[in-house]
Design goal:
globular; 2 domains; Rna Polymerase Sigma Factor, Chain: A; Arc Repressor Mutant, subunit A; 8 helices
């Protein structure tokens, strides 16, 4: 995330002047978050493509960036929009075969459940793109409801409602596999 608005303003100004070092700094400052968010929304096969598209949009759009929101918020909004657009263009949901889901023993080890990450990833792939986006932003990236609402361009109440529905759907998809929760 950006340190201060002043630093963001200086970085943006340098990028607008075409300074390669500033563009490199901006890229390195946000690359992990952009790729991670892309990976969680579109999956591992398309994350690199989406992340590249985001940075193309960032560098093309910096001239028009007005600063109404923080630079990080604007970049995360571009990331979510690019990921959702990518999913819409593909017109598909990720297919999850039973081969990718490990067998779960009748009594899982209390210390560690090695298949949990795979089950969560499979359940995330089954979610509608909008639910996946809000879960990634809030629960994975740790953004506040207000930040999520700004990125998704919706009201805070809508953000909370969508997050509640997304979590409910995840519980439904995961069933008793997580701590026996209903």
């Amino acid at each position: 995330m950006s340190a201060t608005l002043s630093d963001d303003a200086q970085l943006i100004a340098a990028c607008r002047r075409g300074e390669a070092r500033a563009m490199e700094m901006l890229y390195h400052q946000f690359k992990r978050r952009v790729f991670g968010m892309s990976h969680r929304i579109v999956g591992p096969n398309d994350a690199e493509e989406v992340a590249q598209e985001v940075f193309v949009r960032v560098f093309r759009g910096l001239a028009n960036f007005r600063g109404d929101s923080a630079l990080s918020t604007w970049i995360y909004r571009l990331t979510v929009n690019a990921a959702l657009s990518h999913l819409a263009r593909r017109g598909r949901r990720q297919e999850v075969s039973d081969d990718n889901i490990p067998e779960v023993p009748a009594t899982p080890e209390p210390e560690r459940d090695h298949g949990l990450a795979a089950r969560i990833e499979a359940a995330m792939a089954e979610l509608p793109a909008g639910y996946r986006a809000i879960l990634v932003l809030h629960d994975v990236e740790g953004l506040s409801h207000e930040e999520c609402a700004a990125i998704l361009e919706c009201r805070v109440g809508t953000c909370k409602s969508q997050l509640h529905k997304a979590r409910a759907r995840m519980r439904e998809l995961l069933g008793p596999s997580i701590g026996g929760r209903k």
